[in-house]
Design the sequence.
């Protein structure tokens, strides 16, 4: 098909979509153009790059697919090697058409992919970019070639994309494999061949993903017209998994698989022969009719006795993942997580310090999840929210009839409930002095005396406490027991206010995605969000964006949708202002103290002194 000028292309798209002309575009392309014009209300003449995520955002999006990507990578690398010479770039995208893995071809072709952002992080969903290989294959869940001016937007006409959707071990759409070329010398036929190669490679990826997922099960390969299917079954010959083809071939559903249905109801073969050297077997249906020659492979655990032990790389997942996610790219927080990691499973108390809404509770939960106590209780109490007598009873417990109004059978108390796990005491600075003394005794003796009890109860707890107050100063001034303060701060972690975070923009983007996933931010809205000081920190940002997501029109959050009340103008806080200025200067200069000092017109030594005095976290 000859390349058309942009305006001709627009006229052509309009006539196809309005069914005024019978054009030479295939019916799938014409259907997609109609979806783009009428359903997504896209303009074929619009120009501009695709939406692209930052590195941190890509990491966040890719996280749930980490195991799948790892299992598919060897095949993806092979495909990229085979197609590199022909100038194709190769990408793996998630179901929303965001590229999460890419290999660019040689230097001659790479520049154009970079210029047009055909790389990791870019999103090619049909709803944004119009008809294109990735977006359309994912919308239709079918392989497709979108050749040059079959693209909806004229700006993509230099590219040809061939894409095969990728299905996971349960037959669900997990993403798609894309190959894109901008070589003018390659015609449609060449791209059709490359699409066939890509579809084959994608089937092998699906096999690797299935086998990796069901590595502890027996795997039967069942021949079929539309490609062979994979069935996983356990030692009792109950089906535990089936790939998309096997489901279609044998009529298996999630419900049947979840019920642990017998393999013999679907496939029969000689199990003794299946354990032979090559695992090749004759397969029959339950009614005795032949299915053809198949293959059975034993579980990996069985194979590991004859093979060198294969590393189980798809085993979970770093316990510290949640903490790393919360730390984002803030250097101070990253250092704190490193320190937490280095103390390992030692039962060191942690004191979290930070303003309201910075995430002290979620951070405490993440510390618990990263510890060897993760499977035991996490028990939390907010000391500011209760009167002294109630904290006493809640925390330390009491015997039956210990006081008027007590529960008839007494109460174990939160400390005992947290035995073996973690106790989180929020707003510890508000704990009355008498209770501080009792708590100190618990920490020193590792036992609790419930009110009215005749003997103590031994406990093993990890204590995490949190405060927005300056406990050190309170201890100096007698408002908090100094010995308890030192006991609590085995490790002190300062959670910065949102306005101080070096990765503030990342956090705003991430929370916008979570709270208003179908909206985008206008430039003015973005400027306001980035400049605001957030007295309520993450909690406030979440609320603001949640509300904005509800009021936004046409999927765009504007500044009018943002409820950001003026803050901090009434009482100038000189220390906070100085702190904020220094933090901002450090942020601007990538945490480099010398450069920040120069910008602030201070000597390096003075800046260091102020950093120490104001307890500012730096990357150095
Ligand atoms: N790093 C983060 N990224 C995104 N959201 C976060 C982050 N940290 C906290 N939040 C969100 O901010 C809100 C407040 O968090 P949390 O309750 O842990 O704060 P807090 O410091 O304990 O507040 P308070 O001192 O008022 O009890 C929650 O909705 C939480 O999910």
Sequence:
């Amino acid at each position: 098909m000859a390349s058309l000028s942009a305006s001709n292309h627009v006229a052509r798209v309009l006539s196809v979509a309005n069914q005024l002309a019978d054009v030479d575009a295939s019916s799938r392309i014409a259907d997609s153009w109609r979806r783009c014009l009428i359903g997504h209300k896209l303009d074929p003449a619009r120009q501009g790059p695709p939406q692209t995520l930052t590195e941190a955002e890509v990491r966040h999006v890719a996280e749930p697919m980490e195991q799948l990507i790892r299992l598919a990578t060897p095949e993806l690398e092979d495909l990229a090697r085979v197609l590199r010479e022909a100038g194709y770039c190769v990408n793996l995208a998630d179901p929303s058409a965001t590229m999460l893995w890419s290999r660019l071809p040689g230097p001659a072709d790479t520049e154009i992919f970079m210029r047009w952002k055909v790389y990791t992080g870019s999103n090619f969903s049909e709803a944004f970019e119009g008809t294109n290989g990735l977006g359309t294959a994912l919308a239709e869940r079918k392989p497709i070639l979108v050749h040059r001016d079959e693209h909806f937007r004229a700006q993509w006409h230099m590219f040809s994309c061939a894409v095969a959707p990728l299905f996971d071990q349960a037959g669900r759409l997990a993403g798609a494999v894309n190959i894109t070329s901008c070589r003018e010398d390659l015609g449609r036929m060449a791209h059709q061949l490359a699409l066939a190669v890509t579809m084959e490679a994608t089937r092998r990826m699906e096999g690797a993903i299935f086998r990796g997922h069901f590595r502890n099960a027996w795997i039967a390969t069942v021949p079929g017209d539309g490609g062979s299917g994979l069935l996983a079954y356990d030692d009792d010959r109950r089906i535990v998994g089936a790939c998309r083809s096997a489901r279609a071939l044998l009529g298996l559903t999630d419900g049947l698989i979840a019920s642990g249905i017998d393999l013999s109801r679907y496939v029969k073969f000689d199990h003794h022969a299946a354990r032979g050297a090559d695992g090749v077997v004759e397969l029959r249906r339950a009614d005795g009719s032949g299915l053809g020659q198949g293959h059975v492979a034993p579980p990996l655990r069985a194979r590991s006795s004859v093979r060198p032990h294969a590393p189980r790389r798809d085993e979970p997942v770093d316990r510290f993942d949640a903490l790393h996610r919360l730390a984002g790219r803030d250097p101070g927080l990253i250092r704190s997580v490193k320190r937490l990691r280095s103390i390992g499973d030692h039962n060191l108390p942690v004191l979290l310090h930070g303003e309201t809404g910075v995430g002290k509770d979620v951070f405490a939960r993440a510390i618990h999840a990263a510890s060897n106590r993760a499977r035991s209780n996490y028990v939390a109490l907010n000391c500011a929210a209760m009167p002294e007598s109630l904290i006493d009873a809640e925390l330390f417990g009491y015997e039956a009839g210990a006081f008027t109004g007590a529960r008839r059978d007494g109460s174990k108390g939160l400390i005992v409930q947290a035995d073996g796990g973690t106790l989180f005491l929020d707003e510890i600075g508000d704990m009355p002095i008498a209770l501080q003394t009792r708590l100190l005794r618990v920490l020193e003796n590792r036992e609790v005396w419930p009110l009215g009890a005749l003997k103590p109860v031994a406990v093993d707890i990890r204590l995490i406490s949190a405060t927005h107050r300056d406990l050190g100063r309170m201890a100096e001034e007698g408002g908090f027991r100094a010995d308890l303060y030192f006991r609590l701060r085995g490790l002190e972690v300062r959670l910065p206010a949102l306005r101080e975070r070096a990765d503030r923009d990342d956090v705003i983007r991430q929370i916008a995605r979570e709270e208003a996933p179908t909206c985008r931010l206008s430039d003015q809205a973005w400027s306001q969000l980035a400049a605001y000081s957030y007295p309520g920190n993450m909690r406030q940002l979440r609320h603001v964006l949640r509300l904005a997501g509800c009021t936004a029109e046409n999927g765009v959050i504007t500044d009018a949708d943002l409820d950001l009340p003026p803050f901090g103008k009434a009482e100038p806080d000189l220390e906070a202002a100085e702190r904020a200025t220094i933090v901002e200067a450090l942020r601007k200069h990538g945490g480099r103290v010398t450069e920040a000092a120069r910008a602030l017109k201070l000597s390096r030594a003075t800046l260091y002194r102020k950093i120490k005095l104001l307890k500012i976290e730096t990357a150095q």
About this structure: The pocket of adenosine-5'-triphosphate is lined by residues 326, 354, 356-362, 426, 468, 507, 511, 538-539, 542 (CB under 6 Å). The domain at 574-613 is CATH 1.10.10 (Arc Repressor Mutant, subunit A). Confidence is low (pLDDT under 50) at residues 302-316.
